[in-house]
Amino acid sequence: MTYCVGMLVDEGLVFLSDTRTNAGVDHVSTSRKMVVFEDPGERVLVLLVAGNLAITQATLQVLTEPQEAGRPTLWTVPSMVEAARLVGEAVREVHRRDSEALTSFGVEFNCSFILGGQLRGQSMRLFQIYAAGNFIETSSMNPYFQIGESKYGKPIIDRVLTPATPLDEAAKCALISMDSTLRSNLSVGLPLDLLVYECDSLRVTRYATLDQSNEYFQMIHSTWGERLRQVFGEIPDPVWSDAAHVPRRSRGDDPVLPIVPRSPLDGHGVQGGQARPAQTLAQVQPSAPHADSRGPDTPPG
User: Fold this and answer.
1) Which domain holds residue 41?
2) Which GO terms describe its biological process (predicted)?
């Protein structure tokens, strides 16, 4: 498994990937999931990969091996959309060649890609490409993509990232997202590859490989955990009200629930034809600090 995230903000692009690969608990290795295609002054394209390592490597071979005369490559495509389409065609080529053999061995054709970058004279763009070769693009409402083990790192991005987020803050958000994933999933691991692309630079100016010895990432790891515990402790505990209205059942009661007619919410906790337990938690006193709906990996306010 792996975790990769790509972000598109007004100031540039952020790409972050781990390097762990595994084929069982006793076969853990590392492999880079980030590939950079750079022609300084002309184009910068970054490809992140996740899924079956043999399939993603076969796709990269198709993209990078010499092509027949006149066939476009990532070095020659005229637009980012054509670049995304080229990656999709490479995925389908590998599928046509290998999928039947993989299926006969019970191996799922599993791969996904994030492709982003900029060509001279054009805008930055970011795409997610699926195993079928089709793809989607980011929007102002969804300026990022994740592939691989994404669920642990998603809450922080959803709450923080917008197109107006400064580039360095977007990079910090990506690293916190990765730290949350590393904390909760052993199939994602160090070292990390981080590339931050500045809009219209048309060259790579910010790149780092982060491992256990990286002081900044270790600071994020320790500080984020400490501040989460601090904010958690500051949220008021629940205040319990009278438990007289608990929906108790007596021994020998008919276990079949009665049919409740549809009606608007009434004083007995009935809404939309379903019986709801009576509320037993009193509201927190107005003088207490307000508690919002922050997720488990959400920065303090």
Assistant:
1) 3-228
2) proteolysis
